[in-house]
Amino acid sequence: MNPLLEFDEVNKYFGETHVLKDVSLDIEDQDVTVVVGPSGSGKSTLLRCANRLEEIQGGEIRLDGESISDPKADINVLRQRIGMVFQSFNLFPHKTALENVTLAPRKVRGLDDDVAEARGEELLDRVGLSAQLNSYPNQLSGGQQQRVAIARALAMDPKVMLFDEVTSALDPELVGEVLEVMRTLADEGMTMMVVTHEMGFAREVGDRIVLMSDGRIVETGEPKQFFESPETDRGKRFLSKIL
Ligand code: ADP
Ligand code: MG
C-alpha cells in the first residue's frame, strides 16, 4: 500500500535560497509524524508545500498516490483533503464559533445549512466547546479559538491534518487543552503531521519524529529511540539544547 502522504525528493527555493533540499518522507495512514528542528530549518515550508500554500521546484508530493504538486491538480479539492491549522487562529472575527466551522462546508461542499450545523455542533462538542457555539472569537480564550480552528479544519473531513506550532502563541495555561484535543484526534486514528516544540507531546503521541536542519531531514526515528539515543550528531545537539 502507498503511504497516505509522500514527499519525494522535494526541493523548494525562495529566490536563490534553497530551503527544502531533497526532502523525502512517507506519512503512513493513521500515523502521527512530529517534525522538530531549529527555527528556519524549513518545517513550516514543508507543511505549506503539502497544502500548496507554496509551490515546489523539484520532486513530487503525493496524496494517496496522486500528485498534488502537479500544477494541474485541483487546489480546492486538495485543501478539502488536507486540513491545516496554524499558530495564528485566523478565525473570521464577525462570525460565531459555529459559523466559522460551517462556512466552508456550506460554501465549498454545498452542504445544506441544517446538515452543516448539525455536523458543526458535533465537531465543536468534540473539541469541548458545545457551550460556545454562538460565541464570537473575541469572547473566547486563545485555547478555545484554536480549538474552533481545529474543528473548522475537521469540518471538511480531511484525510490528513497538518499542525504548525498551534500552541506557540498561547499562554502556557492554555496549551494543554489544545494538545489534549490533538491527542484525542490521534487516538481516533487521524493521520497527522505536527510541527511543535512540545517535546512531551512529541514523545507521547508521536509515532515518528523527524528532525529537520537547514532544509534537510537529518534524522527520523521512533520517539523513544530519538529522545534517548539519537543517532546523529545533529540530533544529539538538538536534544542537548532543548532538554
Ligand atoms: P521553520 O518553520 O523551520 O522555522 P521556515 O519553513 O519558516 O522554517 O523557513 C525556512 C527558510 O525559508 C528560512 O530561511 C526562512 O527565512 C525562509 N523563508 C520562509 N518563508 C519565506 C518567504 N516567504 N520568502 C523568503 N524566504 C522564506
Ligand atoms: Mg515555522
UniProtKB/TrEMBL annotation:
Main location (coarse class): membrane
Secretion signal span: none
Protein name according to UniProt: Amino acid ABC transporter ATP-binding protein
UniProt topology in membrane: Peripheral membrane protein
Subcellular location: Cell membrane
Pfam (any one): ABC_tran
Domain of life: Archaea
PANTHER family to which the protein is assigned, alphabetical: AMINO ACID IMPORT ATP-BINDING PROTEIN (PTHR43166), GLUTAMATE_ASPARTATE IMPORT ATP-BINDING PROTEIN GLTL (PTHR43166:SF9)
Keyword Transport on entry: yes
Keyword terms: Amino-acid transport, ATP-binding, Cell membrane, Membrane, Nucleotide-binding, Transport
Gene Ontology molecular functions: ABC-type amino acid transporter activity; ATP binding; ATP hydrolysis activity
Family: Belongs to the ABC transporter superfamily.
Gene Ontology annotations for the cellular component aspect, listed alphabetically: plasma membrane
UniProt cross-references to InterPro entries, sorted A to Z: AAA+_ATPase (IPR003593), ABC_ATPase_HisP-typ (IPR030679), ABC_transporter-like_ATP-bd (IPR003439), ABC_transporter-like_CS (IPR017871), MetN_ABC_transporter-like (IPR050086), P-loop_NTPase (IPR027417)
